[in-house]
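hey so i finally got around to running the thing on that chain from the lab meeting. sorry it took forever, my laptop kept dying and i had to restart like 3 times. anyway pasting the input first so we r on the same page abt which one it is
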Amino acid sequence: MIFSENKGNLIKALVKARQVMSSSARKNAQNPHLKSNYANLESFLNAIRPALEANGLIIIQNAVESESIDILRLETTIMHESGEYMSAVMPMPVAKKDAQGYGSAMTYARRYSIASMFGIAQADDDGHAARKSPKDSAALIRSAQSIEELTAIYSDEYKAFKGDDAAT
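ok and heres what got predicted. didnt touch it at all, straight out
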């Protein structure tokens, strides 16, 4: 991983973003060949973009030169509005040497790079097992219509994040 010479603003913004970022990408697509669900690229971007943008950060992903047509090299750069950045390159094998194979490798690399850089996992298929983000819980708490409802929601949400000091 490569960082800009200065990184104080970047690190502060990343910490703030991660505190409210979802820890999982919802499995929102189906693989008909394997008969399984997976989180597509859109789901991973939805898990990180709001938190990044709220903290002056953007993500840029592009292919960089590779020594072999068998390997796609994807560079993921996180930039802060101050000009500070961090960047990493992920190699991904290209199974089919055509546009579809290249595009598939690019999409896989983009998802895996996001997952790696931000600690994002695919949500469990079981809706009850999927972990809410603190932002989701805060919205639920704000939706309470009475003090009794607020107390019940807060109690449930506090229990859900017990042991996660950052979330509580």
